[in-house]
Amino acid sequence: MPSCAAYCCNNSYKKGFVLLRFPTDPILKEKWRIAVGRDNNWKVTSNHRLCEVKHFFLEIFNYKAKY
Ligand SMILES: [Zn+2]
Fold first, then answer.
1. What is this structure's pTM?
2. Which residues are CB-contacts of 11 (< 8 A; sequence separation ≥ 6)?
3. How far is the CA of 49 from the centre of ligand 1 (A)?
4. What are the tens digits of pLDDT across the range 15-50?
5. Residues 43-56, buried b or exposed e (16+ Cβ, 10 A)?
6. How far is the CA of 42 from the centre of ligand 1 (A)?
7. How many whole angstroms from 61 Cα to the centroid of ligand 1?
8. Alpha carbon of 38 to ligand 1 centroid (Å)
9. How far is it, in rounded angstroms, from Cα 13 to Cα 58?
10. Residue 10 has pLDDT above 60, yes or no
11. Helix (H), strand (E), coil (C) string for the chain
12. pLDDT bucket at 55, cuts 50 / 70 / 90
């Protein structure tokens, strides 16, 4: 059961949150990575998700609108 990748966030599907996959676009992915608030050594993998309710910048909403 995936849960949110963000630092100090443990929202999950189980708790009723919508979790989004990281974008494949490298620029967007980097923005998401920054939004996660982890250190620079942290690598995004295809298993990581970010919950919908926190961490979001305008660019991410734009991404969602296009999705
Ligand atoms: Zn979260």
1. 0.70
2. 3, 4, 17, 19, 51, 53, 54
3. 8
4. 998 898 998 888 888 888 887 888 889 888 888 998
5. ebeeebbbbeeebb
6. 16
7. 15
8. 12
9. 23
10. yes
11. CCEECCCCCCCEHHHCCCEEECCCCHHHHHHHHHHHCCCCCCCCCCCCEEECCCCCCHHHHHHHHHC
12. confident
Phi and psi at residue 36, to the nearest 5° = -65, -30
- pLDDT value at position 39? 86
| Cβ < 5 A residues, ion ligand 1 | 4, 6, 9, 11, 51, 54
Separation of CA 9 and ligand 1 centre (Å): 5
Q: How far is the CA of 65 from the centre of ligand 1 (A)?
A: 19
Taking the CA atoms of 12, 18, 24 and 28 in sequence, report the sign of the dihedral they define. negative
Say yes or no to pLDDT of 11 above 70.
Answer: yes
